[in-house]
Write a structure and sequence with these properties.
By secondary structure, this protein is an alpha/beta fold. The protein has two domains: about 270 residues, Alpha-Beta Complex (Spore Coat Polysaccharide Biosynthesis Protein SpsA, Chain A), CATH 3.90.550.10; about 80 residues. The protein has twelve helices and seven strands. A seven-stranded mixed beta sheet has the order 3-2-1-4-6-5-7, with helices on both faces. Helix 3 links the parallel strand 1 and strand 2. The longest helix is centred in the last third of the chain and has 40 residues. It is elongated.
Length: about 350
Amino acid sequence: MEEFFLQFEWQLSSAESVALSQLAEDRVQAASHVAAKSRYHGDHIAAVIPAYNEGLVIGSVVLQARQHADHVIVVDDGSADRTADIARLAGADVIEMPENGGKAKAMMAGFAWARALSYEAVVMLDGDGQHNPAQIPAVAAPVLAGEADLVIGSRFLEIQAEIPKYRIAGQKVLNGFTNLSVDGGTFATTDSQSGFRALSRRALENLTFVSEGYNIESDMIAHFAPLGLKMTEVPISVTYDVPHKHKKNPVSHGFGVLARIVGLIGYKRPLLSFGISGLFVTLFGIGAEFYTFSEYYRIGQFHYIVFTGGFAALILGLLLVTSGLILNSLVMITKSSAAAGRGSP
């Protein structure tokens, strides 16, 4: 069955009618096989799968997901190939976005659909074949047990595959900044960018944040933490031997996500982002000034460039510290007002 879907794109271009009829027959057989092997019954788990030009693999991903979820929703994010047709024939409900709007927009559309269906757990996984759908029950288990509202499938709890070194290094940086952006709670993630996750009904009701592209994973953590939602991680496996390894350049992708996280830190923890950086710049300026005058008194030579640079650093550092203090006060006032508003009848 999986080999059939891997060859489906070519078959459509050479003999479309024959391929469609064969797929329809195989789909009936697969559906009966899936129904017999489905692990959960009774509206427990829905799977939401974003997909962009994944016609080569989306069929097999859907078929495998249907063995472990009661409902599979594929969000076709403006694909130019037959991703939507293949996903639909494989047994998924398909949401077709009018244009490619990025992962965050696609996921929000899928979550809205799943929320309306009132499932106990909604699992999100990528449509490119990197995630193993057989691990859906393991990822959803803490949600179904009432132990967590967000479960992140981590590639780094028990490394089960060869992960490229640049991914490990980049992920550590993004994890550190993501954990800094978390305002409230003690949760620290080991895989902030994992797209294999499970959300509870409470989490679905609190998807009240704005996100773009691949920022949704970090934005979700930063948004849920101050709301008191319980978060945990479970180990997952991953494979990088897939047809579409990178939809974006990994370097630009990483810097884009990092820029967003730094922005979150500045918004939620301004004293940390502005105050600490300003303190270091101020200390650098003081050091430069001290060096300038010490050299002047020691040898009678005045370093104008060092003096000017140190003075500029001193002024910039003091401005950053002042800005951090002011913004932190505004954040505290906003939080107090929000808490008072929630507490009032």
